[in-house]
Amino acid sequence: MLNRWQQWNRQAKLWLSIVTLIGVIAALPLGVQRMTMEKSAQSVEYVFDYRDIVEASDLQPRPRQFVEDRLKMLKDAGVTSMAVYESSIKELMQAGRLTYYNEKEAALLQGKLADERSHNTYILFSGEREAELIGPVVRDAFDRMGISYRDWSFDGHEGLIVEESTSAAALKTMDFDPMALEAIHEAGFHIVARFSDRVVPYDPERTEEQLARLQQYGVTRLLFDGEKVKGFSNQAADKSLNHFASLLNKYEIGLTTIENLKRPQQGLNKLAYLTNYNIARLYSLSPEDSIEMTQEGVVDRFLLAAKDRNIRMFFLNAMTLGNADTGTLDQSVDKLAEIMSGEHGVVQTLTDNGFPAGPAQPFNYEKPSWEKPVRGVAALGAVAIIALLIGAYLPALLIPVFGIGLVGSAGLYVLNSSLMEQALALGAAVSAPTLGLIWVMNRIYARTIGERRMVGGEDWTIGGSGEEPRGTKWIFPDVPIGKRIGLALNWFLVATCISLCAVPLVFGLLNNITYSLVLEQFRGVSVLHLAPIFLVAVYVFLYEGNSTRGVPKRVMAILSQPITIMWVVVVAVLGAIGYYYLSRTGNAGQVSQLELIIRNWLESTFGVRPRFKEFVLGHPPLFLGLFLALRYRAAWVLIIAGTLGQLTMVSTFTHIHSPLAMSIARTLLGLGGGLVIGLILIAAWIVLEGVWRRWAWPTIQKYSAS
Predict the structure, then answer these.
(1) What is the pTM assigned to this prediction?
(2) Closest of 280, 679, 678, 671 to residue 503, by C-alpha
(3) Which of 104, 168, 469, 538 sees the fewest Cβ atoms within 10 Å?
(4) Do residues 498 and 385 make contact, with C-beta atoms less than 8 angstroms apart?
């Protein structure tokens, strides 16, 4: 019965490999569909923060002239849009629409003593036009919040007395400044309206009036301000998000999602779904970067964001700093205009690379009828490859594991289909590179298990009785250099093909616009970067070939080893390397200055930057390790280290927001560069080994004998 079960498992291994291959092939059309989608929206929108211009103007001798001049300057520089926030009396005062006073300031203005029994806010509009256009905005805000006010005038200016302190009144969120909207529209800019969820409760009628008015100014996209999207606070009670989404669809206004926020804006995923994912992704240049970065740095960052991360909107923040050395106030509005303009500026550079300036458009995302069954086949392939991985370590469980995987995936799909897809994508991403290296180790075992050779003087003599002196160094039977290089190259390419089987399964399972817009992300990045290395190390140290016999004995032998200072040092070093390695994963990873120089050179030379961990830290050690593994058992450590290159290739494709064509080009370039560096390392090893065998080893033997 046991023999029959083993026979069934061997047959199951073949059939599961076929199922995996079918899943891989089935997912390929989804990749073609995704590449078509990614080319459907190429125009890039440059959005400047209008509030920053107003704040800078408040520190200038001629504020209104400053705003007019900077709007023209930025328009000429190629900036396409202005972001306008919901206003407050503080911002309206900075814009010159009104002036507000506290009780003491108002008394001083009128030449009388302050009334200490009250702390009112006194508002004066700057002129008749301001009173006509801004007055209703201010009154509406205080009416909505039930704050009492009465008319007031002074020196020919209309105003209000608000029965609230200036500190509290300045916090009230008001409607958009109509005069700012008009000025920006007349200057030829698109308007990006920044809504917040600070106006509660959600008012359906007022919100529709706002959107209708904004549509008249050509607004086609919103950007939310704060931690919540508009309507989120009242969604549970009033379904306000649903109503807001219906208004956005009615007035054909889309959304914007901001890259690299610490926490996603609450309610955005729901609103995105209800608006059929009419979303553009935005990268924000911080005020500090607008001061510190050079034109070259900003150009490189924006180009990389557009090419590698499908960013279609760039938000430009400015700031003003006091310079004690020169005794001046330095603002970055002028610097940003210079950075954007010119032959080597941001706008022209991105245009030359296929990203013309214009309103950001959503990706044309369609789900054909065949997509769902194809993704089902990809899911079946993912279950199969995960079962194959577990079967490589526990062969007797291959069939049960596959059955459990099918049942578990079906159940998880019913409960949470997104979680099921992410779990299978992670499992496939871990399994494929691990299986690729296991296949390599089995080929090495097939050629090296058995007779070995010992270093013994000028000649290589047969040894291996087990009674040799402590410190004897062993090598495997000699293989000609040319054949070793050929075998190493063949094994490397086959292992790479096995590793890349995970790629269609990953992008097939995660073929959803939500991943392209980073509303959802591939989960388990740290697991992907550690698990294959750990599993390959376990296989190298505990397994020999496809047999599990002797594994318990090897485990006990390792556990019985005395803990020495050397072991402690090795563990400490490995821990430090692991910590640095993990710190490099993800978007927040830090890189060295040398690596930045190499990155920039690769980007400018090839147009695509291969991942440093692939072509420098991963592929070359693996190629060298495969070459040496036919001769030195210690070289297997290089194969473990080389797992990094294989898993990093797969990791590249887990960044669903990056263009698929770009990821393919990056991986191919990394493979080519890694093989070239690996060949250089092999050539260097051959030379050094020849020097050692001809001169160094005989000299050591001679001095040892004397």
Answers:
(1) 0.84
(2) 671
(3) 469
(4) no
pLDDT single digits (tens) 160-202 = 999 999 999 999 999 999 999 999 999 999 999 999 999 889 9
Angle at 20 between CA 18 and CA 22, to 5 degrees: 70
What is the β-pairing status of strands 157-162 and 149-154? antiparallel
Q: Is the peptide bond before 178 cis (omega within 30 degrees of 0)?
A: no
**CA distance to 125, 527, 658, per residue, from 504 (Å):** 63, 19, 15
Q: Assess contact for 581 and 575: CB atoms under 8 A.
A: no
| 523, 475 contact by CB (below 8 A) | no
Q: Give the containing element (helix H, strand E) for 706.
A: none
- Phi (first) and psi of residue 45, to 5 degrees: -110, 130
How far apart CA 651 and CA 611 sit, in angstroms, is: 10
Mapping DSSP onto H, E and C, the string for 554-610 reads: HHHHHHCCCCCHHHHHHHHHHHHHHHHHHHCCCCCCCCCHHHHHHHHHHHHHHCCCC
CA distance linking residue 166 with residue 123, whole number of Å: 10
Residues 6+ apart with CB under 8 A from 666: 608, 609, 610, 611, 652
Question: How many Å apart are CA 180 and CA 172, to the nearest integer?
Answer: 19
Residues 549-604 have pLDDT tens digits of 666 666 666 666 666 665 666 566 656 655 555 555 544 444 555 555 666 666 66
Residue 175 · residue 213 · CB < 8 Å: no
